[in-house]
Amino acid sequence: MKYLLQVTAAVALCAGVAHADVIKVGVVGPFSGGAALQGRNFQAGIEAYFALHGKTVGEHEIEVIYRDLPAADPGQSAALTQELIVGEGVQYLAGYYYTPDAMAAAPILEEANVPMVIFNAATSAIVNASPLVVRTSFTTFQTSTPMATVARERGISKAITVVSDYGPGIDAETAFVRAFGAAGGETVQSVRMPMTTVDFSPIMQRIKDSGAEAVFAFLPAGPQTLGFMTAFVENGLKDAGVQLLAPGDLTQESDLPVLGPNAAGMLTTFHYAVSHNSPENIAFIEAASNWLGNPDELSFPAVGAYDGMTVIARMIEATDGRQDAAAAVEAVKGMEWISPRGPVSINPENRHLTQNIYLREVAEVEGKWINHELQVFENQGDPGWVAP
Amino acid sequence: MSQPRTLPLLKRGFLGDIISLAVMIAIAVICFHFMPSNLSFFTRIIAIMLLVLAIDLVTGFTGIATLGHAALYGAGAYAAGIAAAKFGINDPILMLLIGVVAGAIMGLISSLVILRGHGLSQLVLSIAVVQLAREAANKFSGWTGGSDGLSGISPAPLFGTWRFDLWGRTSYWLAVVLLLVTFFLLRQLVRSPFGKLCQAIRQDPVRVRAMGAPVYLTQVKMYAISGAVAGLGGALSAVATKVVGLDSLSFELSAEAVVMLVLGGTANLFGAMIGSGVFMWFEHTMATINPYHWLTIVGALLVVVVLFAPRGLTGMAETLYNRLIGGLRK
Amino acid sequence: MQTILSIGVDAFAYGMVLFVISIGLSVTMGLMKFANLAHGAFAMIGGYVASYATQALGWHFGFALLAAVAACMVLAVPLERFLYRRFYGASELRQVLMTIGLTFMIIGIANWLMGPTLKTIALPPALQGPVDIGFRSVPAHKIFAAVVGLLVAIGLWLLIERTFFGVKLRAAVDDAPMAEALGIRTKIVYAISFSIAIGLAALGGVVGAQLLPIEPQYALHHMVTFLVVVSVGGAGSIGGALAACLILGTVKTTGSYLMPEFGNFFFYLAVIAIVAVFPNGLMGRAK
């Protein structure tokens, strides 16, 4: 019995040690279910990276292993992560769409000697969960805060916030209210709606009654956002000249063909627009669309994944394929590069991406709805992060 | 509902229980040695198994329909998690006990609501209960972490000796022992006069009432016991995962657990365990093979099972067994 | 006053949309005693057909609506013949398991065929934009949904209570062997009823698509809503379903307006209160 135990442990340990030639990266993301498109975008970003930079770093070949986690489900996340580390012997963990899923994986990183590169989950506190977490996406605080400046610059002094009643919604509300107040604006009301709201007419009535000049909104992308924007137009708020403001999750490009006309003129702040004009982005879009088949499906998680692979490649290079999580993370602290979204760098203090946040307007260009970039807020950190 | 029968072999009381326990231990040891990379997954299966067993107690044995049992599981998970994250109660055994108590209390409260209805209305009441619990957990995010999940749970080593490590061995063996103990106790429970009374209530509540037995009180008691079992499952998942999310209080989890129970077969405890094991293993394997389209195949499996094994997998096993014995006797 | 009227209008419109989407399920659960959790999946198929017809083929909304209903009714025939028929009279749990399995399959297939993105149904100009009703404006498609809901309610009531088919259906439900003995071909009656219920699901899916947009998870997202409406109203009762939709619509709308942060608390508390007082639903027949 004891012997068997030792053998098992030894086998498990061996699986965790680096191989000289194949480096496995475990990617956990939503490949089925309601957010399946975001999971596809993870894969599109990874495939785009391989298409442009190849699958090898030095003499090490990268192999990606995918695991499906369709919803926020920490129990399943912990199980999949453990299986990837112990069973598949992955040397890097990546992906993670929802915050609780990332939180559930974080506690085992140090013991497993595995860094984790987050492609999406956008709550500020995640980076505090383990020193081995690096994030290449954004935080809701980071994308929402500049909107307060935008609102003030456009002469808006009274705003109402309307958000879905869940973590990211509350983050967005807090970020905007704080920054808007600091810039001399007044938030007349803060409305939180249940996640299951389908009829937004009563909310629109409240917005009307509040007398606000602008609405700052946050809802999960998809059916909720569609319903909200349709109601916004149908209830005459758009015609009344109320300005709709939001972080860019709401107008992700894959939803724009549907949201299109109702969202026209809406202002959003975000870290990435597919329409961003740079040689890096044009190459990225071509490669990612190639893999997706349908270019209309391309959305922001793809760029998080693409940059995540850039970071992982640097880690592999720095450690020369050895499994040394601390050294790998150390090697990318302060790393700077030009991402498809623009210049970015990794803040050595909290391992989160410092990046440009763009003000965009939903507009129709050559028959296609896009997020048209108007203004840049350069080198934005994460205002929501608090040192542990 | 047709009257589900237990496997003849397993009817034989105490001896049968010992044999079953031995088989379960053997399976646990085999899993441990041959699939060491899946221990976290097995732990998760066992946590869900406890939830499914809890549903079997009220639905299979007592005839109370529910699509909201995750409320009890989630109560256990959150109670154990909050005790650890907010009050520094890190002893895993203590966390489990807190989960059991919370589950039982939640069971008691929700039974008062759910027993107001019958059939469809009972199902809807149970759904309303789990939705309310979820809303509350989302609302009090200062305590529960809301949709970001409750993190910061770090259970101390079990009995001060075994750490909850990367390989998940400690949580695995803890889960196995909990399952064995629960299974053994529940076997005794369903054979006790109380258990027989519950089964009589399922078959004909009117007659039981006419005989002067307290129908309502018995149902409430069984619901509280079921809550304790579900709460134990939830607390186990909090200890093993170290994060509690809103998914543990969802209609989806409740419905999936009922699906597992019916898949395995109701009212014999084995069905609950086999159903959850098979369902989760199948789902896991399919999702690994094809992350994009596994749902279709899982759906097809369900339809096929209901079509060809009306009394679940254990019912099918029993039919095969009887046929085999019948064949031998000829 | 303005506010109360306004809430009243929104509540009525929302309630009627709920009614159109759920009434088909009330028919299956009440009259055919079948717990068809795949109801939302059929509504979703209807929505997809209409979306494809209006967007890709450029059909007029009216034709697309008819095509969606017809397609689902035709699809219902083999499904009833080879699958559902085997579960008439089976335990509720088995019906639930089978229909959840079916829902999973339909979701998977929808995801594969149509992709995971949202789909919209193109409305004709007459149904777009607001309509002025004096003190405020209401989206035209909500008025359309309300009218369709009322027509469906009247039509169904006539069909069940006033036609020979309705008599046969009620007889077949209450006592199948006796009805069979009287020369009613219960199998055909059931097949037609099932097909009608699925057609209603598709109708609801298309008419309600402005509020409940079409996407692969539709069938799971709204399963609870459908069950709640049917149970609060009393399965099989058209008046009950109507009353339930209006009451629940009012609770939800008022809650969203006055205290959105507690919107769902009021909704589920109302459900518990109503069902606790009327265990068979508002107008359900006692069992």
UniProtKB/TrEMBL annotation, chain A:
<dbReference type="InterPro" id="IPR051010">
    <property type="entry name" value="BCAA_transport"/>
</dbReference>
<dbReference type="GO" id="GO:0006865">
    <property type="term" value="P:amino acid transport"/>
</dbReference>
<dbReference type="InterPro" id="IPR000709">
    <property type="entry name" value="Leu_Ile_Val-bd"/>
</dbReference>
<keyword id="KW-0732">Signal</keyword>
<keyword id="KW-0813">Transport</keyword>
<dbReference type="Pfam" id="PF13458">
    <property type="entry name" value="Peripla_BP_6"/>
</dbReference>
<comment type="similarity">
    <text>Belongs to the leucine-binding protein family.</text>
</comment>
<feature type="domain" description="Leucine-binding protein">
    <location>
        <begin position="23"/>
        <end position="363"/>
    </location>
</feature>
<dbReference type="InterPro" id="IPR028082">
    <property type="entry name" value="Peripla_BP_I"/>
</dbReference>
<protein>
    <submittedName>
        <fullName>Amino acid ABC transporter, periplasmic amino-acid binding protein</fullName>
    </submittedName>
</protein>
<feature type="signal peptide">
    <location>
        <begin position="1"/>
        <end position="20"/>
    </location>
</feature>
<keyword id="KW-0029">Amino-acid transport</keyword>
<dbReference type="InterPro" id="IPR028081">
    <property type="entry name" value="Leu-bd"/>
</dbReference>
UniProtKB/TrEMBL annotation, chain B:
<dbReference type="Pfam" id="PF02653">
    <property type="entry name" value="BPD_transp_2"/>
</dbReference>
<feature type="transmembrane region" description="Helical">
    <location>
        <begin position="257"/>
        <end position="282"/>
    </location>
</feature>
<keyword id="KW-0472">Membrane</keyword>
<keyword id="KW-1003">Cell membrane</keyword>
<keyword id="KW-0812">Transmembrane</keyword>
<dbReference type="InterPro" id="IPR001851">
    <property type="entry name" value="ABC_transp_permease"/>
</dbReference>
<protein>
    <submittedName>
        <fullName>Branched-chain amino acid ABC transporter, permease protein</fullName>
    </submittedName>
</protein>
<feature type="transmembrane region" description="Helical">
    <location>
        <begin position="41"/>
        <end position="58"/>
    </location>
</feature>
<feature type="transmembrane region" description="Helical">
    <location>
        <begin position="70"/>
        <end position="87"/>
    </location>
</feature>
<feature type="transmembrane region" description="Helical">
    <location>
        <begin position="12"/>
        <end position="35"/>
    </location>
</feature>
<feature type="transmembrane region" description="Helical">
    <location>
        <begin position="294"/>
        <end position="313"/>
    </location>
</feature>
<dbReference type="GO" id="GO:0015658">
    <property type="term" value="F:branched-chain amino acid transmembrane transporter activity"/>
</dbReference>
<feature type="transmembrane region" description="Helical">
    <location>
        <begin position="172"/>
        <end position="190"/>
    </location>
</feature>
<feature type="transmembrane region" description="Helical">
    <location>
        <begin position="222"/>
        <end position="245"/>
    </location>
</feature>
<feature type="transmembrane region" description="Helical">
    <location>
        <begin position="93"/>
        <end position="115"/>
    </location>
</feature>
UniProtKB/TrEMBL annotation, chain C:
<feature type="transmembrane region" description="Helical">
    <location>
        <begin position="96"/>
        <end position="114"/>
    </location>
</feature>
<keyword id="KW-0472">Membrane</keyword>
<feature type="transmembrane region" description="Helical">
    <location>
        <begin position="262"/>
        <end position="282"/>
    </location>
</feature>
<dbReference type="InterPro" id="IPR052157">
    <property type="entry name" value="BCAA_transport_permease"/>
</dbReference>
<keyword id="KW-0812">Transmembrane</keyword>
<feature type="transmembrane region" description="Helical">
    <location>
        <begin position="34"/>
        <end position="53"/>
    </location>
</feature>
<dbReference type="InterPro" id="IPR001851">
    <property type="entry name" value="ABC_transp_permease"/>
</dbReference>
<dbReference type="Pfam" id="PF02653">
    <property type="entry name" value="BPD_transp_2"/>
</dbReference>
<feature type="transmembrane region" description="Helical">
    <location>
        <begin position="224"/>
        <end position="250"/>
    </location>
</feature>
<keyword id="KW-1003">Cell membrane</keyword>
<dbReference type="GO" id="GO:0005886">
    <property type="term" value="C:plasma membrane"/>
</dbReference>
<feature type="transmembrane region" description="Helical">
    <location>
        <begin position="188"/>
        <end position="212"/>
    </location>
</feature>
<protein>
    <submittedName>
        <fullName>Inner-membrane translocator</fullName>
    </submittedName>
</protein>
<feature type="transmembrane region" description="Helical">
    <location>
        <begin position="143"/>
        <end position="160"/>
    </location>
</feature>
<dbReference type="GO" id="GO:0006865">
    <property type="term" value="P:amino acid transport"/>
</dbReference>
